[in-house]
Amino acid sequence: MLKALKDRTLAFIDCETTGLDPTVHEVIEYAVILEEPDGTFQEFTAKVTPEYIERAHPRALEVNGYTPEKWVGSVPSVQAAQEIGRLLSGDVVLVGHNVRFDSGFFTEMLKRAGVNVRIDYHTVDTITLAWEHLVPKGLTSLSLANVCKFLSVTPGGHEALADARACRTVYHMLMCP
Predict the structure, then answer these.
(1) Confidence (pLDDT) at 177
(2) Among 151, 152, 158, which Cα is nearest to 174's?
(3) In what order do the strands lie in the sheet with 9-17?
(4) pLDDT band at 34, cuts 50/70/90?
């Protein structure tokens, strides 16, 4: 039986990557905020050691602030994939700002690492919510930074946990006005 969205665990997700193509580029930072139906939540985040840094797009590294020094102590990709698989498997609905981008990278990361888990195909995209609720009120750009500015929410700034937190705030503002 299909549960109502309010009765499901929500996973607010974000990742920073080395480019735009999940078959070429990779996740180098991720965040997952698991929110239970009662509103309690847990945050998970890690920087991920890139395996193919030579494939990285320079602009992507500039945007997400990657430097080898900032990634000292990062976790191996396989370990990150195992954690993401554990967090996102089961009766969890993914929520993100352009959720297909992040979920596509997570799916490819799991595949590369040989982590065989089923991630539910039900998703909520805060871009779609912003388009529906905010464009009629004057929003002219659907980027997370602009949606946050329009709603007077602190933007994330291309750090996975900060962006996941901003997405969560936007979601609640638009779904529970």
Answers:
(1) 59
(2) 151
(3) 41-47, 27-35, 9-17, 92-96, 123-125
(4) very high
**Helix orientation angle between 126-133 and 160-175, rounded to the nearest 10 degrees:** 40
Answer for the pair 4, 87: CB distance below 8 angstroms, yes or no: no
Q: Residue 36 CB: number of other CB atoms within 10 A?
A: 11
Question: Does residue 14 contact residue 99 with C-beta atoms inside 8 Å?
Answer: no
Q: Where are the alpha helices (DSSP H) in the chain?
A: 58-64, 77-88, 99-113, 126-133, 144-151, 160-175
Query: Mean of the pLDDT values across residues 120-143?
Result: 96
Name the class of domain 8-175: alpha beta
* Residues 41-81 pLDDT 10s: 999 999 999 999 999 999 999 999 999 999 999 999 999 99
* pTM, entire model: 0.96
Give dist(CA 4, CA 12) in Å, integer.
17
Nearest to 100 by CA among 18, 31, 14: 14
